[in-house]
Amino acid sequence: MTLTAWLTIVGICALGAMSPGPSLAVVLKHTLAGGRRQGMTAAITHGLGVGLYAFVCVSGLAVVILTSETLFTILQWGGAGYLLWMGIKGLLSRSNPNQQLPDVEAKEAARDGFMIVFLNPKIAVFFIALFSQVVGTDTTLVGKFAYASTAMIIDGLWYVVVAWLFSNPRWLAVLQQQAVWLDRIFGVVLMGLAGKLAVELV
């Protein structure tokens, strides 16, 4: 593994993590709903999900997903359905004048953070395209592990930073006052992303 190749992975993974999309919406949703702990839980499991795809792809197992059109399509529809379900939950959010941060179990944030990655097979395509530029026959197992770990750490750290920033007590107090509308906005965003994916699949 060369420094140039590693820096290439760092740059592309950082840009990919920072791109707005359903992952950002999910982490923000849990941060505003349950505070810093819940947001960071979603962020960390999201990073683990990205790491799982990275390890699978760098080891060549993702070819199984890409060569099975049926499995790929099932995962894509599953992802669209999951986004739609979360979007509907957001739209059905109810206003509560005495709203406090709910005592939501961390497993819900962990589930959403991981599943938003797991049900997106396009991440496998992304990593195969990325790793094909830096991984060769002479790349050691340690080198492959380092590439995949880099992708996982960058993604997890980015969303942890997002959760930490938006859970600042001053910001959170203001955002909590508008929680129901933010939930509905996130709901519309997630449903829009689900619709976009569904249109692409038809």
Describe the structure.
By secondary structure, the protein is mainly α. The protein has one domain (3-8, 21-201). 80% of the residues lie in helices and 0% in strands. It has ten helices and no strands. It has helices at residues 3-18, 22-34, 36-58, 62-67, 69-91, 106-118, 122-131, 141-166, 169-177, 179-201. The longest helix is centred in the C-terminal third of the chain and has 26 residues, at 141-166. It is globular. Mean pLDDT is 78; it is low at 97-103.
Q: Catalogue the unreliable spans.
A: 97-103
Distance between the termini: 41 Å
Q: What sort of overall outline do the alpha carbons produce when their principal axes are compared?
A: globular
Please count the helical segments.
10
- How many structural units, i.e. domains? 1
The largest pleated sheet is described as: none
Percent of residues in helices comes to over 70%
Order of helices and strands: HHHHHHHHHH
Helix/strand-derived class?
Answer: mainly alpha
Regarding quaternary structure, what we see is single chain
Kindly provide the radius of gyration, computed on alpha-carbon positions and rounded to a whole number of angstroms. 18 Å
Give a count of the beta strands, DSSP E runs of length 2 or more. 0
Which percent range describes the beta-strand content? under 5%
Q: Can you give the mean pLDDT?
A: 78
